[in-house]
Amino acid sequence: MPYVRIPFPETEQPQEAHSEGSCPVCSAISPALKEQAQEHAHLFRYLHMVPVEEFGVPQYEEKLDRKMGDIEQPNIIYPVGNATFAHVYPDPEDARNYYIPVEPIIGGDYGALLEMVEDRLVDVVHKLPQPTSPEEQKEVLLEALSRIATMGPGNRNGASANGAKTKSGGRAMPKFLGNPQDQAHGAGVCG
Predict the structure, then answer these.
(1) Among 12, 34, 40, 83, which is most exposed with the fewest C-beta within 10 angstroms?
(2) Whether residue 28 is found in the same domain as residue 54
(3) Following DSSP, what letter does each residue of 50-91 receive, concatenated?
(4) pLDDT, position 15
């Protein structure tokens, strides 16, 4: 299971309704970063874990330029593609900064979910025609995934359950049938 180590404690997000007006993070981030957080629930969750009292609210940049390398304590988030962002975060005890990948997997323990998905895939794959080529193998796997997954509320771009590309070029996050964390994928975005 992939694990992203972040240099500050992961905090649990409150389950009650999120209020943008009373949220110090949502009221402090730039409109461009807020727009990205509205589109990507994992970025929203991540922003609420960042200790803004230590280095402030991250600055959002669509593209980096060489001059930014001179910033003494950078706190910058930028997109790297496929719904993934990078956070350049200062390390006060080292000359090198942290480069934290902000991916859909961040902020959650999905080990039990992945085990459940694997079990369901095994059950479904045995009922489908056996593939004879790598292309057929891919098609069978995509068919099996489409039978056990639907799109969750966090997928605002209308992609299909088989992970078809979204309008932004990223992959859609499937909602697995019977997943107790379904509601968390799209919950609590700024706005």
Answers:
(1) 12
(2) yes
(3) S-HHHH-SPEE-SS--GGGGG-SS--EEEEEETTEEEEEE--
(4) 55
